[in-house]
């Protein structure tokens, strides 16, 4: 087989090879989605992001340029699980295969936690968590509604607690799934049904503990708004004591567990019996005391009853006096606010940044002119100094001496200068450097001065 001649070979440079590989990678792969853990995160002053995405067995280098990472809704940190959309490429300068990231979002619990925080801020700003919208719980409910799974542990704990605290208290269960995609719409429908029927005095929204993903139906906006709009007081008892959901903030009262929710909405039989007994005794004493006071008051009023016209005149005069005081107070506050506004306006004018900017610009121009003048002077001084040193160097240069017929003699290897005839012997070879060129000679005869 004939080999191509060197002139016929297509020889690649490294730059060409990397450039063509980059083209193959960028045109051969479409934009892909990739999930992994952030590591080796770097944020240079350019604003670009450089990092690696890794899983249990491998990692890949990534770059996300400034115009893309400015759109991020979170701050990337090492160890965070993320999902990215990227193009496959190659960094030609190092020959490294890499991904050019165009979009990044959190994955797993991190994304759920961010969605939780964003929805909480949104609903709080909308007033869904405001205390003035919270409804008080009835002290003695005639019927309690429970919105939960009919087969879960939460309903058993709630029913057991209610029977223990107040046997015979009616309970209505609105069965719903408490996990999965269908859970949130079902909970909303159950709240609407309870409101439409109006058969309960208070509602318990409950389920057992679980992960953030398991409890997510209780973090949906539609569930929070349904709780907020429900005319019946709602007590949330979702998860364990450490679990917090959006439903807890929207509810009229949050209980740490389903059992605690049942205790909050139900009266205690023993406490009520004791309270009834104490209230009966207090009522008897108060009624007797009130009767005595009313008899005394009636007797006193019969003697002191004033004429209605005088009373009305006094009240009218008092109203006029209060109106005058109110008008004076308003005028005083308006004058005081106007004076404060003028003072603040004058202070702002004194600290107007335009004055400082104008002064700084003049200072900058002066310094620029001074710097240019000093640089020219420094360059001129350095040039003169260089010329002086060049002339001095030429004066002491051994090359000038060689031009007058002298030579530099050294050993043949050139590693040692010969200044004494005792350093050489007959038939030894020496090297001589002239003004132009060098030669090697053999010693035929040695002579001392």
From TrEMBL:
Reactions catalysed: Exonucleolytic cleavage in either 5'- to 3'- or 3'- to 5'-direction to yield nucleoside 5'-phosphates
**One GO process term, biological-process aspect:** DNA catabolic process
**Mainly resides where?**
cytoplasm
- Which E.C. number(s) belong to this protein? 3.1.11.6
Which residues does the UniProt record annotate as the domain Exonuclease VII large subunit C-terminal?
Answer: 128-439
Domain annotation OB-fold nucleic acid binding: ranges: 12-105
Keyword Oxidoreductase on entry:
no
What are the alphabetically sorted keywords of the record?
A: Cytoplasm, Exonuclease, Hydrolase, Nuclease
Keyword Glycosyltransferase on entry: no
Q: Name one GO cellular component term.
A: exodeoxyribonuclease VII complex
Location of this chain's protein in the cell: Cytoplasm
NCBIfam families (alphabetical): xseA (TIGR00237)
Q: What does this protein do?
A: Bidirectionally degrades single-stranded DNA into large acid-insoluble oligonucleotides, which are then degraded further into small acid-soluble oligonucleotides.
Q: Which PANTHER family match?
A: EXODEOXYRIBONUCLEASE 7 LARGE SUBUNIT
Assembly and partners are described as: Heterooligomer composed of large and small subunits.
Q: What is the protein named?
A: Exodeoxyribonuclease 7 large subunit
Gene that encodes the chain: xseA
